Amino acid sequence: MSIAGLLFFAFLISNLPLQIIGFYGIFKKAGVPAWKALIPVYNVYVILEIIDRPKWWIFMLLIPGVNLFYGAGICVELVTCFGKFSFKHHAMSVLMNGYYFTYLGFSKNEKFIGVNGVKEGQTPPIRSTTREWADAIVFAVVAATLIRIFVAEAYMIPTPSMEKTLMVGDFLFVSKFHYGARVPNTPLALPFVHHTVPILNCKSYLEWIKLSYRTLPGFEKVKRNDMVVFNFPAGDTVVIENQAPSYYDIIRYTAYSNRVDYATARQMMWSDVNTHISARPVDKRENYIKRCVAVAGDKLEVKDGVLYINDALAYQPENLYTPYMIVFKDGMGLSGDKIQELEMEDISNRLGVLPANHFVVLMTKQHVEELKTLDITTSVQPFFYQKDRLQEPIENIFPNDTARYHWNVDNFGPVTLPKKGWTVTLTDSIYKQYERAIHVYEGNAVEQRDGKFFINGAEASTYTFKMDYYWMMGDNRHNSQDSRYWGFVPEDHIVGKAWFIWMSYAKEASGLNKIRWSRLFSSIHGRWAPDDKKFTE
Fold first, then answer.
1. Cis peptide leading into 355, omega within 30 of 0?
2. What is the pTM of this model?
């Protein structure tokens, strides 16, 4: 812990007993038996009586995150009973309440006046315009922050990984309450920014207080086909100067390009004075949105570009954007307008040199059928990477071990998703699939010595998982950085459920055509994510 963290911790430790002492003095001045201040929880109930506020507030103090705001309100109301109306006094009551309450409770110069700081028959003092504005702004910030944390958050689709289901330029609301709002891991953070303060380019949060994973009760669990926003699992470490690829992909690329092992590549990165590396807590990692295609306990496999869950064909989204090999007749082709109309994306350059008239493009099934009616092609067939073909010599496909796994995005698995309470037998091959879940996500120290596994210092031949895990994939299957690259998504990384689109904006269009009117206020799950009851647990 840093010096600042130690000082803050010492302040908290000294502040708590002073609160009780302060309550003791305040209760006496308020005409309440002072012994009631010594009983935890009950003393808060008594304070609510003193300040004449609803007793149900005490239940709000039990909700992490919410309790910060209600607690601050109670502190302000309590010092107001002593005629303290200024911003300075209210700030002191919140930030150093134990010390300030002790002063109010035992200072001979401070008198308990009554609720709202006025005696019976008197009227409260008129607040200045500046103070009224300050109170309004603080209330708005607090209310908006609570809504953002526990109810819903605005989100914009930044990349085409979900085309043509969710599109770049879609503005949507993400529900926090469907799955149960997650209590922030880092409660000391600036409101309305994620992990970095704009312009200043510094952290927007402090890690002096770190809370373990907790959620409020939700209405449902994450289901197959749900559109889910989650924290990027491989985003626990980032290279500040180059955040687009993951830190681990950069290490793999550095190792491959320099013909060195991973340990040496990691050392090269950390010793580079022009490279700044930062670790981020779970709730401050980048937000991604994908479709949950498999839940804890499922067996997943991709064969020739087709997804299977528990050995059965998985749901195929209506707007699934997949690659096709198109062979045009000699002298035939498509105009730019027609390419735009059919929403084709040419990815031929990713595959090296192709024969004449051969192209690989991303399209939906609907537009493929339209293309076939034009009589300008000799063949239109689904394209996929053949089994055992490595897409690149770099180990960038999960579980990032080309010696044991020759998987690619189109021929992948099978892999079983860990489930809370599920026990797996540890072997070299199996451990590679679950290494990050066991070591990083569930916080275990793992060693391999003489062909044996040691978890937290004890020899182990099995491991029992503590969390549920999910598998996320984009509907734009050949243009999506998803679980096929970095693996499982732990339950503590789940942010919320994509709710509805309130605005959709096409940058390439002009005038009023920029707005995709048909998408406005679309219910995402009612339109693109049917409830999948085909597979049983």
1. no
2. 0.81
